[in-house]
Specification:
Number of helices: 11
CATH class of the largest domain: Alpha Beta
Strand order of the largest sheet: 3-4-7-6-5
Largest sheet: 5 strands, antiparallel
CATH architecture of the largest domain: 2-Layer Sandwich
Structural class: alpha+beta
Radius of gyration: 26 Å
């Protein structure tokens, strides 16, 4: 049970709001009084949504408070003035809002130690957890050498599910939060290099110039664009084969799947990455940026090369015949 301030509890009681250990709200953050919005650790979505979306948590303390406040503001502005330019594309009268940002927690401990943890809040179908997780956590522990403890947890698809830090170094915790939700392949082969004893210090490795793009405030937009490319036909076929076979997606399996991705899809991915680096060249001057070619040009170049090869073969054959 949460300790409730007496003034807040008095306000809830006098206004006839529904309270069941926490103030009950609907999916628009409205209480039983349609003129009162509420959010925070003292609030909980109504139990009726449990039957609609079984995989979501109802208590708001399970979500990132910054994202909850931002979502509440959008609902509030949309309510007081429907003419305001508010992005209401995600609003649904029957479902709960979607939350994506990781949930960070941390504290200062005696002897100048710092504990920090960030975990994913994205809901996952329980059927997925029934499968065996073949992804072992990556653990870096140098506390016996006055270092730190740093671990990365992964789900069965290789997505970073949690990050835990314990030590005395004052790290950039916002950078650690930005890693949650990314696939392990974004970490520049960190797992293979660490297992092969090619990396001695993971915090230093993650603070090098190559990783600065991961912490850029617009990198999440790049990830969204890359995910949109996954709707290509060749990606659909690969995913369909994986689902039909129902095989575990270990690192070797993913490497084999990547070899099946078509050239056009790879060209689109390269185009988005190079565009991102070009647009943010001032903040990311450490990367070598190749010449940017539209996807159509890249495919046309491939066609012209093949046609030129065919024409050269014809010429060679004609010369040999002469």
């Amino acid at each position: 049970m949460l300790d409730v301030d007496p003034m807040i509890f008095k306000f809830i009681h006098e206004n006839g709001l529904v309270y069941n250990g926490r103030a009950i709200i609907n999916n628009n953050f409205l209480t039983a009084d349609n003129s009162i919005f509420a959010a925070g650790k003292l609030c909980e979505f109504s139990q009726c949504y449990q039957y609609i979306e079984r995989h979501k948590q109802l208590r708001l303390e399970c979500y990132n408070s910054q994202e909850v406040g931002y979502t509440l503001a959008k609902y509030f502005l949309q309510t007081i003035d429907s003419q305001l330019n508010v992005d209401a594309s995600a609003f649904d009268d029957k479902k709960l809002p979607n939350f994506y940002l990781p949930l960070p927690t941390g504290c200062y401990l005696p002897d100048d130690y710092i504990f920090f943890k960030a975990k994913s809040v994205k809901e996952t179908n329980p059927k997925i957890y029934q499968k065996e997780n073949n992804r072992q956590p990556l653990i870096y522990n140098t506390l016996d050498k006055n270092g730190c403890y740093l671990s990365f947890g992964f789900n069965i698809f290789g997505i970073i599910d949690s990050v835990v830090y314990f030590g005395k170094e004052d790290l950039d915790y916002r950078a650690l939060v930005s890693l949650v939700g990314l696939h392990e392949t974004y970490l520049n082969k960190l797992l293979n290099r660490f297992e092969g004893d090619l990396i001695d210090n993971i915090p230093i490795f993650l603070s090098e110039n190559w990783a600065l793009a991961l912490y850029h405030d617009k990198f999440s937009q790049l990830v969204i664009k890359l995910k949109a490319i996954l709707h290509e036909e060749d990606i659909y076929k690969i995913v369909y084969d994986v689902v039909e076979k129902d095989e575990p997606l270990d690192r070797e399996a993913i490497t084999g799947l990547l070899s099946k991705v078509g050239k056009r899809t790879k060209a689109k991915i390269e185009y988005e990455i190079v565009s991102f680096l070009n647009e943010n060249r001032n903040q990311l001057p450490f990367y070598h940026i190749p010449a940017l070619k539209p996807v159509e040009d890249s495919t046309q170049d491939g066609g012209s090369k093949s046609s030129s090869k065919k024409s050269s073969k014809k010429v060679s054959r004609q010369e040999s015949a002469k």
